[in-house]
Structure formats: C-alpha cells, structure tokens
Amino acid sequence: MNQPPVIEIKNVSYRYDRDNVLENIQLSVPKGAFLGLVGPNGSGKSTLLKLILGLLKVKEGEVFLFGTPQKSFKNWDRIGFVSQKANSFNTGFPATVYEVVASGLTKKLGLFRRPGSKEKQAIKAAVEAVGMEAFLTRNIGELSGGQQQRIFIARAIVSKPDILILDEPTVGVDSKNVESFYNMLAYLNQQMGITLLLVTHDIGIISDKVTHVACLNKYLHFHGSMQQFETLDEEDLSDLYGHGIHLLDHHHEHQGADV
C-alpha cells in the first residue's frame, strides 16, 4: 500500500479582507522529498506555510497531513519548523547550545522533567547532524547568524520529525557559507530521511539538491520534479510566473563550513 503524501493541499484559497493571496492551490509533498518552494515577496509563501502549520485557519479547500485532515491532526511532533525569524532574539540570552536544542524536547518531556540518557543522546545526535558538535557548551549568543540557524534546525529535529519546514533559512547566513549550509540540509534529507519543505527566493543555488520545485505567486504556476523544472525555458517560465527566476547555478564555488 502506497504511503499518503506527507503534505497534501487540495483547492486551497485564502484572502486577507478582500485581497486574494492564494488561489486554488493544489500541492503534494511525498515522503522523502526535498521540495523547494520559490516565489517573490508577497507571493503567498508565508501564508501557505501558516495554513499548513495550522497558524491560519483553512477556510477554502483542504489540507491533509500524513493522510489526515489537518483539522483533526494531533501528531504535531512529526513536523519540525524553523521560521525566518528564528534567530531574531537577544544575543545576550543566557542559554547554551545544549539548552537551546534540549528545549525542542519540552513538548515530549514537559516543562519540569530533565532530559534522561536517551534524550541526551538525541540532543547530541541532532547537534552532530548540523555539524555543530564542537559548540555544545557554547552560549548561543556567541555564535554567528549561520551557526545559530544550524542550532535552531537541531532544535527542530531533536524530536525526530518526519518533515522539516524551513522559511528562508539562509537569512543571517554569510554568503560564503550558504553552500555548506545547503549541503547540511541535503544530508538531513538524504542520510537521515527527513522530508524537507524549503522556502527560498532563488532555486538556482540548490538545484542540485532539491528533488521537487513549486513556483508560487498567488497561483501555483509550476509543481513537479527538479528534472521537469530543468527542461523549462527560463524566459517562458518567467512570462508564466510573472517574475524572473534563476533556474540553474551549478557553477557556484563550494565553501567551507560556517564555523
């Protein structure tokens, strides 16, 4: 029996007051996919994420999570989320990397139960997965923006979700370290088996890592495999999409880790 999509969106539309932000969106994210969701500012990407995560109420259409209607979905620990504003916090906040990642287990442990040996191992494994094991005892405020973002990803995956949703995760990541950051995401997808939904402005730099692409600008203008996306003519797609898209960039330089 085939597994249902991790996320399935059927005929979803959404409006703020009288302004339609999304129109008749139909989108499916299969298990194991690495989906790049691309669109200009104001294209409805953040609204779509909020609808998926239940932060906004679906009024037109349906959203299914792991085959279950979202309105009756209870297993939210199967979904990890890192927002664009994840690293917008007081850099003087007195918490170590270990403590920040451990906070991702609060829902499972409760507020007052301390991590046991099993949880400590999960924290260590999550930090290692994002390449930050050398910083386990470092204060979070001492890290660079890119390093902090890796830690917030570790916090999101410490509870071992099936899907990780990332909203513009390279905000605050130094440009020379973006490549190694995306290599880390590819590792989470390919080696750890985590389905990824990544919101990005430029699909080009990750064209060799994503498996699927969705182009959103109020309407879903394209949704398919990366192989299908690569066959599209850039000018034709831009005309359809109403916004320029950088399709491919396989010649970027590979940089070292953001440490």
UniProtKB/TrEMBL annotation:
Transmembrane segments: none annotated. Keywords: ATP-binding, Nucleotide-binding, Transport. The keyword Transport applies. Coiled coil: none annotated. Residues 7-242 form the ABC transporter domain. Pfam families: ABC_tran. The keyword S-adenosyl-L-methionine does not apply. InterPro entries: AAA+_ATPase, ABC_transporter-like_ATP-bd, ABC_transporter-like_CS, Metal_Ion_Import_ABC, P-loop_NTPase. One of its GO terms (molecular function) is ATP binding. Belongs to the ABC transporter superfamily. This is Zinc ABC transporter, ATP-binding protein ZnuC. It comes from Bacillus badius. The lineage of its organism: Bacteria, Bacillati, Bacillota, Bacilli, Bacillales.
